[in-house]
């Protein structure tokens, strides 16, 4: 056997994923941190650069593809999940990531988002949630809090917001996670978890719009508040939070309750996070947690269930099965199918 | 089975005639579409030329026996060329009073009228809003009326099978079909084969339907009800192998052929909508050709998924009708901006809004030409007959792939559901569709154009070294970088327009059928071809000098069209809309053309065209 000398493989670096395009987000925008995290994670995935496709809709977040040196497609408002589904169905070998926002994915594109998730198309979704419309200069979004005063709601919005995670879990998404723009290492870890997931991976990234909704997440991100207001989910670990890691979450009947550790409550009594549970009910409960007074906001992987087949695999397998059964189609036979007659 | 074919032939000799128009009409639950298509298949196999007109309500099952629930299927078959389903009918089969009431006006005087007399009860008459029983009041005296107890006779023929009453009654359409086979002296073989295939797993239903068919035939034989039967010899079609084909089937076959000839996977993104859904039904069967069909969550996802698939290297299509087309509008603009190959089929129906879902219309032409924000030119092609849909699908795919553009293909409800004989082409005679994917990173730029076609390169994801970004924002030519500069925008708008206009270089010249110059040019497009051809033939036989140009390419138009128009004294533009092509022609050629416009959800009758022609250029005997 002869030895084949392969050219040395130079590992990709963050720089390989940067483009020559001037980044045009407002100075101080949370999007920069997300871009940086994604550019740091992509080289670590062991995927050739030409196999990445970054797809987006419309909005500040949707400028994302222009700044990633991969294949990129900046589509139209709300429709990125459908465009990405077409790409992924045809080419399951491609690594398709989608950058979207709370308006793009949940308002104008809500329908496509839920159907992509229910089909479990192997697309990684980064939903930048800043609870505001930025690119159109400051109207309320489907995640803005009730009574929010914005340009389009000078007397306060009368819409009830919904939770992106609850929506995704309601659509029975197989991977649902949350991270925060400024929690760089947590964000990178979460992205890696998403990348490792087979099917649809839905990641809500809490992102600060310092122009139109500055401080929307400060209650979670300010150094003092962080440990009291955030509970970090880790599969197989108990739900513990607090500056002194002295608070835990325990199940009481079908509800969660906060307990003080040490005061007669042992760690073993706490809720052990199970991201791999096949039923979405538990993850749904987690996604609603912060709505309850006094409860922290969970971040991390709420749900990662890998037993659901991917859409692109099923749709292509069906084609292969038919070909295996019938043989590859013969065009002459097809055109002459059915009742034919000869005119002499 | 053999017993059926060995039925005694009529005792007398059938009268040889050259054509007939037959219409089956009944409740939408009576199986009229099946009955009609079976009769069609039989006469087509025999070698007659055919044209069909299925006409059914939008409601799946309107209340039984009512006027809105009437479903009809008309067939014109002949020993010579057939261009239309026929203006008036020679034979009408009416399964109930409602069907009679809706259809009787189209029956020729002295025409054959077969009615199911069992359905002329007080109750059925009331549902048809008929006070007096027409079978008894001499209102049908000018027709040859045959009152047949279809239900009672069918029940009697099937009573020994032990089948439930509902299933038995469902066979009465085949009793009627058997009668028609006797009347036109036709073999029941192909329908028997169809029954055996259709009810393969239900032997009792196979038997029941075959028996009903045979009983209808035997009834005519035994009672000599009609006293006469007819023979229509085969038509002299161009030699070759034929099959009967509907427009939607033809589109599906055309796209599979385009996929095979281009070597590209076929991807169809579609959302169910009448009358386009059959294309999805057809293509979803062809997975052995690698066809990927995606039933999307809505019309927008249908087109945007197709845009995604095209971006990834597929021959991508999306199929819809008017309301769906409206929803796809923004995505069409994206396809124009990113310059990606895509075929959008609009199977037009009556509008606006939901309109007349099952009725035909040609009123989406201006939508196809202009219905997008800003300057977004798209090539537009239209099919003119059911079988023509095959060739137009191929041509639309070829243009999309060659020029890297979305292409709109217009068909309509009449073509979609109508059928005609199709001479099956040899696969080897169909030209290959060349496709080039960019692969060389050296000098690659996403908007660097082919100097001839102005097409940009097709650089699919996964190609090393060709990583690039595209999108709906205005971009700089050549580099594809986002660019908002005023002159660049104007340049890009003009390039996109020039690219589409340039397709005219390879569009065949308009060659008028009939007289190459003369008193009248009929300029039209789409499904009106059949009735116009028939009318022009009749009028020219009377000595009128008429030319007929039927446009397949509506954008761009054939380069010589302006000159052709000048060769005639007058120009008539018949359309099933308020004058949309007329509007384009008047604007583009400053020609004082005249419209003939019908907006009734129905095709032109030949006579309507003939009358208009006479009005315009007078009769010359």
- As laid out across the biggest beta sheet of chain A, the strand order is 2-1-3-4-6-5-11-7
Strand content of chain A: 15-25%
Secondary-structure element order of chain A, as H and E?
A: HEEHEHHEHEHEHHEEEEHEHHE
Pair with the biggest interface: A-B, 61 and 72 residues
Question: In what range is the share of β-strand residues of chain B?
Answer: 15-25%
The residue ranges of chain B in which pLDDT falls below 50 over 5 or more consecutive positions are 1-6
Structural write-up:
- The complex is a heterodimer of chains A (344) and B (621).
- Chain A is an alpha/beta fold and 344 residues long.
- Chain A has 11 helices and 12 strands.
- Chain A has helices at 31-41, 80-90, 102-108, 110-119, 164-170, 184-196, 218-221, 223-229, 281-287, 311-326, 331-335, and strands at residues 52-56, 71-74, 95-101, 123-129, 175-180, 201-206, 230-233, 240-241, 247-252, 255-260, 297-304, 340-343.
- In chain A, the strands form 2 sheets. In chain A, strands 2-1-3-4-6-5-11-7 form an 8-stranded mixed β-sheet, with helices on both faces.
- Chain A is globular.
- By secondary structure, chain B is an alpha/beta fold.
- Helix content of chain B is 36%, strand content 21%.
- In chain B, the strands form 5 sheets. A 7-stranded mixed β-sheet of chain B has the order 11-10-12-13-15-14-21, sandwiched between helices. Chain B has a 6-stranded mixed β-sheet with strand order 3-4-2-5-6-7, with helices on both faces.
- At the A-B interface, strand 1, strand 2, helix 2, helix 4 and helix 10 of A face helix 2, strand 9, helix 10, helix 12 and helix 13 of B.
